[in-house]
Amino acid sequence: MAPGRPGPAVMVTVAWSPAPRQVQEVALNLPAGATVRAALEASGAPNAGDGRVGVWGRKAALDQPLREGDRVEVYRALRVDPKLARRERFGRQGARGAGLFAQRRPGAKPGY
Q: Which of 13, 15, 40, 53 is deepest in the core (most CB within 10 A)?
């Protein structure tokens, strides 16, 4: 590549969720060597500066370089602890209405 000439562009997608069950995606053409931070700035994704981002579902640093076809994802903070939500759901269902052996055949041995 000659000096002063721009390198090949990489095509990436930036995705974020503004609200539950909603996803917005922006396809971008960025110069070669672009980082996650550059993709977030170019996309205009909200809350991108707090560092909760990943590439294809894996946590990524803001200075990580991107490759062709990468999908940058901006993560929202959890509103409820998943363990606590499961405990509460189990409490509402009761011990007999939940779990692996809730639908036993009549007369079957316990645990089967």
A: 53
